[in-house]
Write a structure and sequence with these properties.
The protein has 408 residues and is α/β, with parallel strands linked by helices. It has 13 helices and 19 strands. The strands form five sheets. The protein has a six-stranded mixed sheet, sandwiched between helices.
Length: 408
């Protein structure tokens, strides 16, 4: 081991240690070299959404780990995404006091695990999927295996690992909706936000829906009788700026027409066209208002002779900052203060996570509780700051201690 490497390991252990609120044995049990080795193993496994073989390998690793500490483990199958994992500190898997949620899948194509292997440069780890979500997924294991007995006895803690977070499916969405109904509290282990020095947490995530509007015109020969046609592409061109302008009426809403299709050949007036918008929103009330307004616009139409229709979208929810989540944020802040850590910084971000699913069912949610990372989804530069692993693990352990002692 080089001198620089040894100094980093020593400095990370000293810098991350807080007041002796987490049991001394649990704190001392953290071994950065072992943690890095485990993350390297996960990074070496291709687990793109839909690649069931790789995702199942990761689920098997965690199933074996949690069984080794006496937790109850089930691995329900999500068609098209592979096995999920539910590990609970009690035998009851019908109701939980708190969920720790992470995901086994990545956006990285099969083959990137070998092309962009785990690499440690100082305190930063690199590799395909190292930050999203394999370092944080590993941190969940360390959090749970280091908990005091009175916490796991008092709380029925569930670890939920989703094999379809990056690219959802009907099966994985149904699985997550079922899990979300079982708990009043969810801690989501997406990577800590590396764009903020020291890493930030997430209090609000916008909801995300793809809105497709279809246009039905009338074909005609563009040379002989264009006047008899009704051009669906023209109607779409008129509709895009009008629909996009709806966003200006609502705080935090974006409507971007990003994909268009239309027509068949240049010498035929286009009979069909369609545009798909990326729709982001801050809360479900706003979501419903925008959907109603866009639907009304489509029913009225944008051009005479061309029918327009809003395709019924798959509804999702925002991760909203509710009174209950505000209490949970306060508990995380309190835990950080007791550990001597910097006061958490809470962000509102545009991208969704599994936290949105728990929030939709009324749970108090905090997100980005995992190891700090950045450059997500870029296999060449994605990084995870392993010097933040121990402080983040201790923070979650303290939050769970507080939940066991005082509740929310």
């Amino acid at each position: 081991m080089t001198s620089t490497r040894r100094q980093f390991l020593q400095a990370a252990a000293v810098a991350a240690a807080g007041p002796a609120i987490i049991p001394k044995a649990a704190a001392n049990a953290f071994n950065l070299k072992q943690f890095a080795s485990e993350v390297a193993e996960l990074v070496s496994i291709d687990s793109k959404s839909g690649y069931e073989e790789g995702s199942n390998k990761i689920i098997n690793i965690f199933a074996k780990r949690f069984r080794s500490i006496g937790w109850t483990v089930s691995t329900p199958y999500c068609k098209g995404r592979g096995n999920a994992l539910v590990a609970t500190s009690h035998k009851n898997q019908d109701r939980y006091d708190v969920v720790l949620c992470a995901h086994s899948d990545t956006v990285q194509p099969v083959g990137n695990a070998a092309k962009y292997p785990f690499k440690l440069d100082g305190h930063k780890a690199y590799g395909a999927g190292v930050a999203d979500d394999k370092s944080s997924l590993n941190a969940v294991w360390w959090i749970c295996k280091g908990l005091p007995k009175h916490v796991t006895e008092k709380l029925n803690i569930a670890v939920v690992i989703n094999p379809g977070e990056e690219s959802g499916s009907d099966a994985s969405r149904a699985f997550m909706a079922e899990q979300a109904k079982k708990t009043p509290i969810a801690l989501i282990y997406e990577p800590g936000r590396g764009e903020v020095p020291g890493g930030a947490f997430v209090a609000v995530r916008k909801g995300s829906i793809f809105l497709t509007v279809k246009f039905h015109g009338k074909p005609a020969h563009a040379g002989n009788n264009p006047q008899d046609g009704r051009n669906a592409v023209y109607a779409m061109a008129l509709a895009i700026p009008k629909i996009s302008a709806v966003a200006k009426k609502y705080e935090g809403v974006t409507l971007n027409g990003d994909v268009v299709k239309g027509g068949t050949v240049p010498n035929t007036i286009a009979e069909h066209a369609e545009v798909t918008f990326d729709f982001r929103f801050m809360n479900d009330k706003t979501r419903d208002a925008v959907l109603a307004e866009v639907d009304a616009m489509c029913k009225k139409g944008f051009m005479e002779g061309v029918k327009s229709e809003l395709v019924p979208p798959k509804i999702s929810s925002a991760l909203a900052r509710t009174p209950q989540s505000e209490k949970l944020i306060g508990l995380v802040d309190k835990a950080a203060a007791e550990l001597g850590q910097k006061k958490p910084r809470w962000l509102t971000v545009g991208g969704a996570s599994d936290g949105n699913k728990f929030s939709a069912q009324g749970a108090a949610v905090v997100c980005a509780m995992g190891v700090v990372g950045g450059n997500l989804h870029n296999p060449q530069t994605e990084w995870s700051d392993l010097s933040t692993a121990m402080p983040r693990i201790q923070l979650s352990q303290r939050v769970l201690n507080l939940l066991a002692d005082t509740g929310l």
